[in-house]
Amino acid sequence: MAGIADKFDKAYEEKPITELADAPAASLQGVSDSDAEHLKAAFNIKTVRDLGTNKYFLWAQAVAKLAE
């Protein structure tokens, strides 16, 4: 988990990866509660797993990679 735990708020740093996936989006460092509410309203994203598997974010990531 090296390199992953430090991307989360302190309260989540010791959690196993399975719990991190189901943690609220706001548990990610840099994602505020307000940001998380916007993600929920726009894309129905509630958890880190939702964010990581959202088709629009995956499509954008693929385009960015192909453009390198």
Shape: globular
**Helix-strand topology string:** HHHH
Give the radius of gyration: 13 Å
Low-confidence stretches: none
Q: Major beta sheet, specifics?
A: none
Task: Calculate the terminal CA-CA distance, rounded to whole Å.
Answer: 27 Å
Helical residues, percent: 40-55%
How much of the polypeptide forms β-strand, as a percent range? under 5%
Query: What's the number of extended β-strand segments?
Result: 0
Describe it for me?
The protein has helices at 17-21, 33-43, 48-53, 55-66. By secondary structure, it is mainly alpha-helical. The longest helix has 12 residues, at 55-66. The mean pLDDT is 95.
What's the topology here?
Layout: H1 17-21, H2 33-43, H3 48-53, H4 55-66
Notable characteristics:
single chain; 68 residues; mainly alpha; 4 helices; 50% helix; 0% strand; globular
In short:
This protein has helices at 17-21, 33-43, 48-53, 55-66. By secondary structure, it is mainly α. It starts with 16 loop residues before the first helix and ends with a helix.
